[in-house]
Amino acid sequence: MTVRIASGAGFWGDYPDATGRLLAHGEFDYLQLEYLAEVTMGILARLQESGRPGYATDFVDIVAEEYVDALLDREITVVTNAGGVAPTACAERVQELAADRGRDPTVATVTGEEVTAQLDELRADPGLPNIETGAAFPETVEPQVAVAYAGAFPIAEALDRGADIVITGRVADPALTLGPLLHEFEWQADDYDRLAAGTVAGHLIECGTQVTGGNFLGDWRDLSFANLGYPIAEVEPSGAFTVTKPPDTGGAVTTETVSEQLVYEIGDPSAYLTPDVTADFTSVRLEDLGDDAVRVEGVTGTAPPEDYKATVHYPNGFKLAGELLYSRPDALEKARRAASILEDRIETLGLDVDETHADYIGHDGAHGPAAPDREPYNEIMLRFAARGPSRDDLRRLGMEFAPLSMAGPPSVTGLTDGGGRRRRRSSTRGRHSSRGTRSSPR
Amino acid sequence: MSDDTDEEVLLADIAHGRSGDKGNRLNIGVVADDSAAYERLREQLTAAFVARQFDGLVNGSVTRYELPNINALNFLCEDALDGGGQHSLRYDTQGKTYAAALLECRLPHERTHD
Protein backbone atom coordinates (compact mmCIF):
# COMPACT_ATOMS: atom_id res chain seq x y z
CA MET A 1 0.00 0.00 0.00
CA THR A 2 1.30 3.43 -0.91
CA VAL A 3 -0.06 6.82 0.00
CA ARG A 4 0.11 9.34 -2.81
CA ILE A 5 0.53 12.97 -1.85
CA ALA A 6 0.47 15.68 -4.49
CA SER A 7 1.77 19.22 -4.10
CA GLY A 8 -0.38 21.81 -5.84
CA ALA A 9 1.08 25.07 -4.55
CA GLY A 10 4.68 25.88 -3.75
CA PHE A 11 3.99 29.44 -2.67
CA TRP A 12 1.27 32.07 -2.66
CA GLY A 13 1.27 33.16 -6.28
CA ASP A 14 1.82 29.74 -7.85
CA TYR A 15 -0.20 28.81 -10.95
CA PRO A 16 -3.93 29.13 -10.18
CA ASP A 17 -4.61 26.05 -12.31
CA ALA A 18 -2.02 23.84 -10.56
CA THR A 19 -4.68 21.80 -8.79
CA GLY A 20 -6.54 21.49 -12.09
CA ARG A 21 -3.38 20.16 -13.77
CA LEU A 22 -2.98 17.56 -11.06
CA LEU A 23 -6.62 16.54 -11.21
CA ALA A 24 -6.53 16.25 -15.01
CA HIS A 25 -3.52 13.95 -15.22
CA GLY A 26 -2.67 12.62 -11.77
CA GLU A 27 -3.79 9.95 -9.35
CA PHE A 28 -3.34 10.85 -5.70
CA ASP A 29 -4.93 10.59 -2.25
CA TYR A 30 -3.85 13.85 -0.64
CA LEU A 31 -3.31 17.33 -1.96
CA GLN A 32 -0.98 19.58 -0.02
CA LEU A 33 -0.90 23.30 -0.68
CA GLU A 34 1.84 25.51 0.75
CA TYR A 35 1.31 29.28 0.82
CA LEU A 36 3.38 30.75 3.63
CA ALA A 37 6.84 32.10 2.90
CA GLU A 38 8.65 33.64 5.87
CA VAL A 39 7.59 37.13 4.82
CA THR A 40 3.97 36.13 4.20
CA MET A 41 2.90 35.99 7.85
CA GLY A 42 3.83 39.64 8.41
CA ILE A 43 1.98 40.63 5.25
CA LEU A 44 -1.11 38.69 6.35
CA ALA A 45 -1.01 40.24 9.83
CA ARG A 46 -0.96 43.69 8.22
CA LEU A 47 -3.83 42.80 5.90
CA GLN A 48 -5.86 41.51 8.82
CA GLU A 49 -5.20 44.74 10.75
CA SER A 50 -6.63 46.67 7.82
CA GLY A 51 -9.78 44.57 7.84
CA ARG A 52 -8.89 42.17 5.04
CA PRO A 53 -8.56 38.38 5.31
CA GLY A 54 -5.57 37.13 7.27
CA TYR A 55 -5.43 33.92 5.24
CA ALA A 56 -4.24 32.94 1.76
CA THR A 57 -7.17 34.02 -0.38
CA ASP A 58 -5.75 32.09 -3.34
CA PHE A 59 -6.74 28.89 -1.63
CA VAL A 60 -10.27 30.06 -0.95
CA ASP A 61 -10.88 31.82 -4.26
CA ILE A 62 -9.31 29.26 -6.53
CA VAL A 63 -8.95 25.87 -4.93
CA ALA A 64 -11.95 25.87 -2.61
CA GLU A 65 -14.20 27.54 -5.15
CA GLU A 66 -13.18 25.88 -8.40
CA TYR A 67 -12.00 22.44 -7.42
CA VAL A 68 -13.86 21.53 -4.25
CA ASP A 69 -16.38 19.30 -6.05
CA ALA A 70 -13.74 17.34 -7.92
CA LEU A 71 -11.61 16.93 -4.80
CA LEU A 72 -14.52 15.71 -2.69
CA ASP A 73 -15.88 13.46 -5.44
CA ARG A 74 -12.48 11.80 -5.81
CA GLU A 75 -12.05 11.60 -2.04
CA ILE A 76 -8.85 13.58 -2.14
CA THR A 77 -8.03 15.04 1.26
CA VAL A 78 -6.60 18.55 1.30
CA VAL A 79 -3.94 19.68 3.76
CA THR A 80 -2.90 23.32 3.55
CA ASN A 81 -1.28 26.08 5.57
CA ALA A 82 -3.55 28.60 3.81
CA GLY A 83 -4.90 29.63 7.24
CA GLY A 84 -2.09 32.13 7.68
CA VAL A 85 -2.85 34.18 10.79
CA ALA A 86 -6.57 33.35 10.58
CA PRO A 87 -7.14 29.59 10.09
CA THR A 88 -10.60 29.67 11.64
CA ALA A 89 -11.85 32.46 9.37
CA CYS A 90 -10.37 30.60 6.41
CA ALA A 91 -12.17 27.39 7.37
CA GLU A 92 -15.47 29.23 7.79
CA ARG A 93 -15.16 30.72 4.32
CA VAL A 94 -14.32 27.35 2.79
CA GLN A 95 -17.34 25.82 4.50
CA GLU A 96 -19.58 28.62 3.20
CA LEU A 97 -18.37 28.16 -0.34
CA ALA A 98 -18.85 24.41 -0.12
CA ALA A 99 -22.34 24.90 1.28
CA ASP A 100 -23.21 27.11 -1.71
CA ARG A 101 -22.56 24.03 -3.82
CA GLY A 102 -24.58 21.80 -1.56
CA ARG A 103 -21.48 20.18 -0.09
CA ASP A 104 -20.67 19.72 3.55
CA PRO A 105 -17.04 18.70 3.94
CA THR A 106 -15.47 18.24 7.35
CA VAL A 107 -13.07 21.14 7.63
CA ALA A 108 -10.54 21.04 10.46
CA THR A 109 -8.23 23.77 11.66
CA VAL A 110 -4.90 23.50 13.44
CA THR A 111 -4.30 26.47 15.73
CA GLY A 112 -2.22 27.33 18.76
CA GLU A 113 1.01 28.18 17.00
CA GLU A 114 0.44 31.92 17.32
CA VAL A 115 2.35 33.10 20.37
CA THR A 116 1.93 36.88 20.03
CA ALA A 117 0.14 37.10 23.39
CA GLN A 118 2.78 35.02 25.19
CA LEU A 119 5.69 36.97 23.76
CA ASP A 120 6.41 39.14 26.81
CA GLU A 121 6.35 36.09 29.02
CA LEU A 122 8.68 34.17 26.67
CA ARG A 123 10.99 37.16 26.39
CA ALA A 124 11.40 37.18 30.16
CA ASP A 125 11.79 33.45 30.56
CA PRO A 126 13.52 31.62 29.00
CA GLY A 127 14.31 34.39 26.56
CA LEU A 128 14.05 34.51 22.79
CA PRO A 129 17.53 34.27 21.31
CA ASN A 130 17.90 35.10 17.64
CA ILE A 131 18.42 31.82 15.83
CA GLU A 132 21.05 33.33 13.52
CA THR A 133 23.05 35.55 15.84
CA GLY A 134 22.13 34.41 19.35
CA ALA A 135 21.31 38.02 20.22
CA ALA A 136 18.67 38.69 22.86
CA PHE A 137 15.27 39.85 21.69
CA PRO A 138 15.39 43.65 21.31
CA GLU A 139 13.42 45.53 23.98
CA THR A 140 12.23 48.29 21.71
CA VAL A 141 10.43 46.09 19.22
CA GLU A 142 6.64 46.07 19.09
CA PRO A 143 5.64 42.79 17.49
CA GLN A 144 2.75 42.58 15.07
CA VAL A 145 2.49 38.82 15.13
CA ALA A 146 4.63 35.96 16.42
CA VAL A 147 4.18 32.41 15.27
CA ALA A 148 5.93 29.18 16.13
CA TYR A 149 6.36 26.45 13.53
CA ALA A 150 4.02 23.61 14.51
CA GLY A 151 4.66 19.99 13.66
CA ALA A 152 2.75 17.24 11.87
CA PHE A 153 0.97 15.49 14.73
CA PRO A 154 -1.91 17.98 15.03
CA ILE A 155 -2.55 17.52 11.30
CA ALA A 156 -2.60 13.74 11.78
CA GLU A 157 -5.06 14.15 14.63
CA ALA A 158 -7.37 16.22 12.44
CA LEU A 159 -7.23 13.46 9.82
CA ASP A 160 -7.80 10.77 12.46
CA ARG A 161 -10.97 12.64 13.33
CA GLY A 162 -12.23 12.51 9.77
CA ALA A 163 -11.26 15.82 8.21
CA ASP A 164 -11.70 16.23 4.46
CA ILE A 165 -9.82 19.52 4.50
CA VAL A 166 -7.19 20.49 7.09
CA ILE A 167 -6.32 24.18 7.34
CA THR A 168 -3.33 25.21 9.42
CA GLY A 169 -1.50 28.40 10.20
CA ARG A 170 2.27 28.28 10.39
CA VAL A 171 3.57 24.73 10.41
CA ALA A 172 6.93 23.37 9.36
CA ASP A 173 6.40 23.02 5.60
CA PRO A 174 7.15 19.27 5.44
CA ALA A 175 4.47 18.70 8.10
CA LEU A 176 1.86 19.09 5.35
CA THR A 177 3.17 15.81 3.92
CA LEU A 178 4.21 14.11 7.15
CA GLY A 179 0.79 14.67 8.76
CA PRO A 180 -1.10 12.45 6.30
CA LEU A 181 1.63 9.78 6.58
CA LEU A 182 1.35 9.70 10.38
CA HIS A 183 -2.38 9.28 9.96
CA GLU A 184 -2.21 6.57 7.29
CA PHE A 185 0.69 4.51 8.61
CA GLU A 186 0.28 5.20 12.33
CA TRP A 187 3.93 6.11 12.66
CA GLN A 188 4.82 6.91 16.26
CA ALA A 189 6.55 9.99 17.67
CA ASP A 190 9.81 8.07 18.13
CA ASP A 191 9.81 6.34 14.73
CA TYR A 192 12.55 8.79 13.85
CA ASP A 193 13.74 7.17 10.62
CA ARG A 194 10.26 7.10 9.19
CA LEU A 195 9.43 10.58 10.43
CA ALA A 196 12.65 11.72 8.74
CA ALA A 197 11.64 9.95 5.52
CA GLY A 198 8.25 11.68 5.55
CA THR A 199 9.99 14.97 6.25
CA VAL A 200 12.31 14.50 3.26
CA ALA A 201 9.28 13.68 1.11
CA GLY A 202 7.63 16.87 2.30
CA HIS A 203 10.76 18.94 1.75
CA LEU A 204 11.07 17.64 -1.80
CA ILE A 205 7.49 18.35 -2.89
CA GLU A 206 6.52 21.40 -0.83
CA CYS A 207 7.96 23.81 -3.38
CA GLY A 208 5.82 22.27 -6.11
CA THR A 209 7.47 22.41 -9.52
CA GLN A 210 10.93 23.14 -8.14
CA VAL A 211 11.42 19.36 -8.00
CA THR A 212 9.97 18.68 -11.45
CA GLY A 213 12.20 20.97 -13.48
CA GLY A 214 11.24 24.48 -12.38
CA ASN A 215 14.34 26.57 -11.61
CA PHE A 216 16.55 23.65 -12.64
CA LEU A 217 20.07 24.98 -13.19
CA GLY A 218 21.31 21.88 -15.00
CA ASP A 219 20.29 21.26 -18.61
CA TRP A 220 17.21 23.46 -18.40
CA ARG A 221 17.10 24.03 -22.16
CA ASP A 222 15.96 20.46 -22.64
CA LEU A 223 12.93 20.88 -20.39
CA SER A 224 9.42 21.72 -21.47
CA PHE A 225 8.16 24.36 -19.08
CA ALA A 226 4.71 24.48 -20.64
CA ASN A 227 2.18 22.68 -18.47
CA LEU A 228 4.93 21.84 -16.00
CA GLY A 229 3.89 18.86 -13.91
CA TYR A 230 3.33 19.25 -10.18
CA PRO A 231 4.97 16.57 -8.03
CA ILE A 232 3.48 13.53 -6.37
CA ALA A 233 5.22 11.56 -3.60
CA GLU A 234 4.19 7.91 -3.49
CA VAL A 235 5.11 6.80 0.00
CA GLU A 236 5.38 3.25 1.32
CA PRO A 237 4.78 2.21 4.95
CA SER A 238 8.56 1.82 5.41
CA GLY A 239 9.05 5.48 4.57
CA ALA A 240 10.69 4.77 1.21
CA PHE A 241 9.02 6.82 -1.47
CA THR A 242 9.01 7.73 -5.13
CA VAL A 243 8.86 11.28 -6.43
CA THR A 244 7.05 11.51 -9.71
CA LYS A 245 4.69 13.71 -11.69
CA PRO A 246 1.55 13.05 -13.72
CA PRO A 247 2.05 11.71 -17.26
CA ASP A 248 1.62 14.11 -20.18
CA THR A 249 2.95 17.09 -18.25
CA GLY A 250 6.06 19.20 -18.80
CA GLY A 251 9.30 19.16 -16.85
CA ALA A 252 11.22 16.16 -15.55
CA VAL A 253 11.85 14.22 -12.39
CA THR A 254 15.43 12.94 -12.32
CA THR A 255 18.07 12.47 -9.64
CA GLU A 256 19.39 15.87 -10.78
CA THR A 257 16.13 17.74 -10.24
CA VAL A 258 15.55 15.94 -6.94
CA SER A 259 19.11 16.63 -5.74
CA GLU A 260 18.75 20.34 -6.45
CA GLN A 261 15.57 20.52 -4.41
CA LEU A 262 17.08 18.44 -1.60
CA VAL A 263 19.74 21.11 -1.03
CA TYR A 264 17.28 24.00 -1.34
CA GLU A 265 17.04 26.29 1.68
CA ILE A 266 18.80 24.03 4.14
CA GLY A 267 21.55 24.56 6.68
CA ASP A 268 23.45 21.59 8.09
CA PRO A 269 22.24 18.73 5.89
CA SER A 270 22.89 16.15 8.60
CA ALA A 271 20.46 17.95 10.91
CA TYR A 272 17.38 19.29 9.17
CA LEU A 273 15.29 20.41 12.12
CA THR A 274 11.53 20.21 12.46
CA PRO A 275 9.37 20.03 15.60
CA ASP A 276 8.93 16.30 14.90
CA VAL A 277 12.36 15.00 13.98
CA THR A 278 15.96 15.83 13.13
CA ALA A 279 16.30 14.47 9.60
CA ASP A 280 19.68 13.49 8.16
CA PHE A 281 19.74 14.51 4.49
CA THR A 282 23.16 12.89 4.07
CA SER A 283 21.48 9.51 4.53
CA VAL A 284 19.19 9.97 1.54
CA ARG A 285 19.73 7.51 -1.33
CA LEU A 286 18.33 8.40 -4.74
CA GLU A 287 17.66 5.99 -7.56
CA ASP A 288 16.49 7.11 -10.99
CA LEU A 289 13.75 4.70 -12.04
CA GLY A 290 13.28 6.41 -15.42
CA ASP A 291 10.04 7.83 -16.76
CA ASP A 292 10.11 10.76 -14.35
CA ALA A 293 10.31 8.68 -11.20
CA VAL A 294 13.02 8.84 -8.55
CA ARG A 295 13.02 6.47 -5.62
CA VAL A 296 14.19 7.85 -2.27
CA GLU A 297 15.20 5.54 0.54
CA GLY A 298 17.59 5.02 3.40
CA VAL A 299 16.57 8.16 5.26
CA THR A 300 17.50 8.28 8.92
CA GLY A 301 16.51 10.61 11.70
CA THR A 302 16.96 11.34 15.38
CA ALA A 303 15.01 13.13 18.08
CA PRO A 304 13.76 16.64 17.32
CA PRO A 305 15.33 19.71 18.94
CA GLU A 306 14.14 20.87 22.36
CA ASP A 307 13.06 24.25 21.08
CA TYR A 308 10.46 25.46 18.68
CA LYS A 309 11.40 27.98 16.04
CA ALA A 310 9.26 31.09 15.80
CA THR A 311 9.17 34.13 13.60
CA VAL A 312 8.35 37.50 15.07
CA HIS A 313 7.12 40.18 12.68
CA TYR A 314 7.47 43.79 13.66
CA PRO A 315 7.36 47.19 11.98
CA ASN A 316 10.83 48.47 11.34
CA GLY A 317 10.52 51.65 9.29
CA PHE A 318 9.81 52.24 5.62
CA LYS A 319 11.29 51.32 2.30
CA LEU A 320 11.18 53.00 -1.09
CA ALA A 321 12.38 51.96 -4.52
CA GLY A 322 12.23 53.82 -7.84
CA GLU A 323 13.49 53.08 -11.34
CA LEU A 324 14.90 55.01 -14.31
CA LEU A 325 15.99 53.47 -17.63
CA TYR A 326 19.15 54.81 -19.30
CA SER A 327 20.08 53.91 -22.89
CA ARG A 328 23.40 53.56 -24.67
CA PRO A 329 25.92 54.98 -25.09
CA ASP A 330 27.49 54.91 -21.65
CA ALA A 331 24.29 53.64 -20.03
CA LEU A 332 26.00 52.49 -16.84
CA GLU A 333 27.86 55.76 -16.40
CA LYS A 334 24.63 57.75 -16.80
CA ALA A 335 22.78 55.57 -14.32
CA ARG A 336 25.60 55.86 -11.79
CA ARG A 337 25.55 59.61 -12.16
CA ALA A 338 21.79 59.65 -11.54
CA ALA A 339 22.24 57.61 -8.36
CA SER A 340 24.83 60.05 -7.09
CA ILE A 341 22.44 62.95 -7.79
CA LEU A 342 19.80 61.19 -5.69
CA GLU A 343 22.36 60.73 -2.90
CA ASP A 344 23.20 64.44 -3.07
CA ARG A 345 19.55 65.40 -2.95
CA ILE A 346 18.96 63.30 0.18
CA GLU A 347 21.78 65.31 1.76
CA THR A 348 20.58 68.69 0.49
CA LEU A 349 16.99 68.11 1.54
CA GLY A 350 18.07 66.70 4.89
CA LEU A 351 15.95 63.56 4.47
CA ASP A 352 16.05 61.05 7.29
CA VAL A 353 17.33 57.99 5.45
CA ASP A 354 19.17 55.13 7.15
CA GLU A 355 20.51 53.43 4.08
CA THR A 356 20.42 53.62 0.29
CA HIS A 357 21.12 50.99 -2.34
CA ALA A 358 21.54 51.26 -6.10
CA ASP A 359 21.03 48.31 -8.42
CA TYR A 360 22.09 48.72 -12.04
CA ILE A 361 19.73 46.27 -13.67
CA GLY A 362 21.38 44.79 -16.72
CA HIS A 363 24.72 44.88 -14.91
CA ASP A 364 24.45 43.94 -11.24
CA GLY A 365 20.75 43.93 -10.26
CA ALA A 366 20.94 40.28 -9.24
CA HIS A 367 24.50 39.87 -8.02
CA GLY A 368 25.69 43.28 -6.78
CA PRO A 369 29.43 43.36 -6.16
CA ALA A 370 29.72 39.72 -7.31
CA ALA A 371 28.72 40.70 -10.86
CA PRO A 372 31.54 40.82 -13.42
CA ASP A 373 32.02 43.90 -15.59
CA ARG A 374 30.66 43.36 -19.10
CA GLU A 375 30.46 46.83 -20.57
CA PRO A 376 29.33 48.28 -22.89
CA TYR A 377 25.67 47.79 -22.03
CA ASN A 378 22.89 48.75 -24.39
CA GLU A 379 20.81 50.00 -21.51
CA ILE A 380 20.74 50.02 -17.75
CA MET A 381 17.79 50.32 -15.40
CA LEU A 382 18.73 52.23 -12.30
CA ARG A 383 16.79 50.95 -9.33
CA PHE A 384 17.45 53.18 -6.37
CA ALA A 385 16.16 52.03 -2.99
CA ALA A 386 16.24 53.56 0.48
CA ARG A 387 14.98 52.78 3.94
CA GLY A 388 14.41 54.97 6.95
CA PRO A 389 12.12 55.76 9.85
CA SER A 390 10.05 58.49 8.18
CA ARG A 391 7.33 57.74 5.65
CA ASP A 392 7.07 61.42 4.72
CA ASP A 393 10.79 61.71 4.05
CA LEU A 394 10.79 58.62 1.84
CA ARG A 395 7.77 59.95 -0.05
CA ARG A 396 9.69 63.16 -0.60
CA LEU A 397 12.57 61.11 -1.94
CA GLY A 398 10.09 59.40 -4.25
CA MET A 399 9.45 62.79 -5.86
CA GLU A 400 13.11 63.08 -6.80
CA PHE A 401 12.96 60.45 -9.56
CA ALA A 402 10.70 62.18 -12.10
CA PRO A 403 12.68 65.43 -12.26
CA LEU A 404 15.73 63.43 -13.37
CA SER A 405 13.97 62.76 -16.68
CA MET A 406 14.47 66.45 -17.53
CA ALA A 407 17.23 67.56 -15.19
CA GLY A 408 19.75 64.75 -15.15
CA PRO A 409 21.97 62.68 -17.45
CA PRO A 410 20.58 62.20 -21.00
CA SER A 411 18.70 59.40 -22.80
CA VAL A 412 16.52 58.42 -19.88
CA THR A 413 13.03 57.00 -20.11
CA GLY A 414 10.46 55.06 -18.14
CA LEU A 415 8.73 58.04 -16.55
CA THR A 416 5.55 58.24 -18.56
CA ASP A 417 3.50 59.33 -15.57
CA GLY A 418 0.68 61.81 -16.18
CA GLY A 419 2.11 64.28 -13.73
CA GLY A 420 0.33 63.33 -10.54
CA ARG A 421 2.00 64.03 -7.24
CA ARG A 422 2.81 60.38 -6.62
CA ARG A 423 5.13 59.19 -9.34
CA ARG A 424 4.30 55.89 -10.85
CA ARG A 425 7.84 54.63 -11.13
CA SER A 426 8.56 54.98 -7.46
CA SER A 427 6.60 53.62 -4.60
CA THR A 428 6.82 53.86 -0.87
CA ARG A 429 6.06 50.65 0.89
CA GLY A 430 3.99 50.95 4.03
CA ARG A 431 5.24 49.90 7.41
CA HIS A 432 7.28 46.92 6.58
CA SER A 433 7.75 44.06 8.92
CA SER A 434 11.21 42.84 9.39
CA ARG A 435 11.26 39.34 10.58
CA GLY A 436 13.48 38.16 13.31
CA THR A 437 13.77 34.45 13.80
CA ARG A 438 13.67 33.31 17.37
CA SER A 439 13.51 30.06 19.13
CA SER A 440 11.62 29.27 22.26
CA PRO A 441 11.47 26.11 24.32
CA ARG A 442 8.97 23.45 23.46
CA MET B 1 34.00 17.05 -18.74
CA SER B 2 35.21 16.41 -15.26
CA ASP B 3 38.01 14.35 -16.83
CA ASP B 4 39.80 17.52 -17.93
CA THR B 5 41.63 17.64 -14.68
CA ASP B 6 44.51 19.73 -16.00
CA GLU B 7 42.27 22.49 -17.29
CA GLU B 8 40.71 25.41 -15.58
CA VAL B 9 37.05 24.46 -15.42
CA LEU B 10 33.83 26.41 -15.40
CA LEU B 11 31.88 25.21 -12.38
CA ALA B 12 28.67 25.11 -14.43
CA ASP B 13 30.29 22.51 -16.71
CA ILE B 14 30.68 20.00 -13.89
CA ALA B 15 27.89 20.92 -11.47
CA HIS B 16 24.49 22.51 -11.01
CA GLY B 17 22.81 23.96 -7.96
CA ARG B 18 20.20 26.06 -6.22
CA SER B 19 20.18 28.91 -3.73
CA GLY B 20 17.66 30.44 -1.39
CA ASP B 21 17.09 32.19 1.90
CA LYS B 22 16.44 31.50 5.55
CA GLY B 23 16.02 34.88 7.13
CA ASN B 24 19.24 36.80 6.61
CA ARG B 25 21.07 33.59 5.78
CA LEU B 26 21.73 32.38 2.27
CA ASN B 27 22.32 28.81 1.26
CA ILE B 28 23.86 27.65 -1.99
CA GLY B 29 23.66 23.96 -2.77
CA VAL B 30 26.07 22.74 -5.45
CA VAL B 31 25.46 19.32 -6.98
CA ALA B 32 28.37 17.76 -8.90
CA ASP B 33 27.61 15.86 -12.10
CA ASP B 34 29.46 12.73 -10.97
CA SER B 35 31.73 11.47 -8.21
CA ALA B 36 34.93 12.62 -9.97
CA ALA B 37 33.52 16.12 -10.21
CA TYR B 38 32.46 15.90 -6.58
CA GLU B 39 36.00 15.06 -5.50
CA ARG B 40 37.29 18.05 -7.42
CA LEU B 41 34.70 20.29 -5.74
CA ARG B 42 35.63 18.93 -2.33
CA GLU B 43 39.22 19.80 -3.08
CA GLN B 44 38.76 23.20 -4.64
CA LEU B 45 35.36 24.66 -3.88
CA THR B 46 36.17 25.67 -0.34
CA ALA B 47 34.19 27.92 1.98
CA ALA B 48 36.93 30.52 1.55
CA PHE B 49 36.59 30.32 -2.25
CA VAL B 50 32.84 30.93 -2.01
CA ALA B 51 33.32 33.77 0.49
CA ARG B 52 35.71 35.44 -1.99
CA GLN B 53 33.18 35.19 -4.83
CA PHE B 54 30.55 36.96 -2.75
CA ASP B 55 32.80 39.56 -1.16
CA GLY B 56 30.66 42.63 -0.47
CA LEU B 57 27.46 40.63 -0.78
CA VAL B 58 27.90 38.10 2.02
CA ASN B 59 29.06 39.87 5.17
CA GLY B 60 29.19 36.92 7.58
CA SER B 61 30.97 33.60 7.65
CA VAL B 62 30.55 30.81 5.12
CA THR B 63 30.25 27.22 6.32
CA ARG B 64 30.57 24.26 3.97
CA TYR B 65 28.69 21.00 4.48
CA GLU B 66 29.15 17.79 2.51
CA LEU B 67 26.48 15.50 1.07
CA PRO B 68 28.55 12.70 -0.48
CA ASN B 69 25.36 10.68 -0.96
CA ILE B 70 24.27 13.00 -3.77
CA ASN B 71 27.72 14.39 -4.70
CA ALA B 72 26.74 17.77 -3.29
CA LEU B 73 28.12 20.54 -1.14
CA ASN B 74 26.02 23.03 0.77
CA PHE B 75 27.27 26.50 1.65
CA LEU B 76 25.55 28.34 4.46
CA CYS B 77 26.33 32.05 4.40
CA GLU B 78 25.63 34.27 7.40
CA ASP B 79 24.50 37.90 7.22
CA ALA B 80 24.14 37.50 3.49
CA LEU B 81 20.91 39.17 2.43
CA ASP B 82 20.95 42.75 3.73
CA GLY B 83 18.59 41.74 6.54
CA GLY B 84 16.57 39.46 4.27
CA GLY B 85 12.90 39.43 3.34
CA GLN B 86 11.12 42.75 3.50
CA HIS B 87 14.06 44.55 5.12
CA SER B 88 16.48 44.11 2.24
CA LEU B 89 16.99 46.92 -0.25
CA ARG B 90 18.41 44.54 -2.85
CA TYR B 91 16.49 43.49 -5.94
CA ASP B 92 17.13 39.81 -5.23
CA THR B 93 16.06 39.92 -1.61
CA GLN B 94 16.19 36.13 -1.21
CA GLY B 95 19.41 35.27 -3.02
CA LYS B 96 17.58 33.08 -5.53
CA THR B 97 20.03 33.95 -8.30
CA TYR B 98 23.23 33.51 -6.30
CA ALA B 99 23.74 29.84 -7.22
CA ALA B 100 23.94 30.90 -10.87
CA ALA B 101 26.65 33.43 -9.97
CA LEU B 102 28.69 30.79 -8.19
CA LEU B 103 28.37 28.34 -11.11
CA GLU B 104 29.97 30.97 -13.37
CA CYS B 105 33.18 30.76 -11.39
CA ARG B 106 36.21 28.95 -12.73
CA LEU B 107 38.04 26.42 -10.65
CA PRO B 108 41.83 26.59 -10.98
CA HIS B 109 44.07 23.98 -12.61
CA GLU B 110 44.23 20.88 -10.51
CA ARG B 111 47.61 20.51 -8.93
CA THR B 112 47.36 16.90 -7.90
CA HIS B 113 49.53 15.79 -10.86
CA ASP B 114 52.55 17.84 -9.79
From TrEMBL, chain A:
InterPro entries membership: AtuA_N
Biased composition, class Basic residues, residue ranges: 421-442
Start and end residues of each stretch annotated as Disordered: 401-442
Acyclic terpene utilisation N-terminal domain span: 3-414
Domain of life of the source: Archaea
Protein name: Acyclic terpene utilisation N-terminal domain-containing protein
Protein's organism: Halolamina pelagica
Record lineage: Archaea, Methanobacteriati, Methanobacteriota, Stenosarchaea group, Halobacteria
Automatic annotation (TrEMBL), chain B:
InterPro entries, sorted: AtuA-like_ferredoxin_dom
Domain AtuA-like ferredoxin-fold: from-to ranges: 10-106
PANTHER family recorded: PTHR47708, SI:CH73-132F6.5
Name of this chain's protein: AtuA-like ferredoxin-fold domain-containing protein
Organism expressing this protein natively: Halolamina pelagica
Lineage of producing organism: Archaea, Methanobacteriati, Methanobacteriota, Stenosarchaea group, Halobacteria
